[in-house]
Design goal:
alpha+beta; five-stranded antiparallel beta sheet; four-stranded antiparallel beta sheet; 11 strands; elongated
């Protein structure tokens, strides 16, 4: 034999393994980074609120019933699409007509990286929090007619109001 293929075979196998390892690591880091930066505003809540946090798909214009676990207080919450493209919310207490509130929600992101896995962004001053009588829920946009509310089910329950 003119040359021995064994050393070349081992070298190519080693190089292929390194390349596959780098690609997998890059993909995993990209996934983790995108999961954190593209998801709900995790940095705005305490670590205990993140544990067990769930998303609730909300259709704008439909009333939601929000009940607090600590006191059992119930609220009606409605989100609606505004003409300027933002989302408005209004809430009122079911027990006390004087307790109510409203606000406006919008996403504003700054692109910090563009990779093969997608765009990576960070919050650049959006309004992503629904403030509801001492409680708060996080929000993110979905489509034109819907979005997502993020909450801790051990502190609050959410459900669509039954139509009367």
């Amino acid at each position: 034999m003119l040359f021995d293929v064994s050393p070349m075979k081992y070298a190519l196998t080693f190089i292929a393994g390194v390349v596959v390892g780098i690609v997998c690591l890059y993909a995993w880091q990209g996934y983790q980074f995108q999961r954190i930066t593209m998801g709900a505003p995790i940095s705005q809540v305490s670590s205990e609120d993140i544990t067990g946090r769930q998303s609730f798909a909300v259709t704008y214009g439909r009333s939601l019933r929000v009940v607090t676990a600590d006191s059992g207080a119930a609220f009606t919450l409605t989100l609606s699409q505004l003409p300027n493209g933002n989302v408005g919310y209004a809430w009122k207490s079911d027990a006390d007509d004087l307790k109510s509130g409203q606000g406006e929600l919008f996403e504003k992101y700054e692109e910090i990286a563009k990779t093969p896995t997608g765009r990576h962004v960070k919050d650049a001053g959006g309004s992503l929090r629904i403030k509801l009588d001492g409680h708060s829920l996080d929000w993110s946009a979905g489509s034109d007619g819907s979005g997502y509310i993020y909450y801790n089910p051990s502190k609050l329950t959410l459900a669509y109001q039954d139509k009367d």
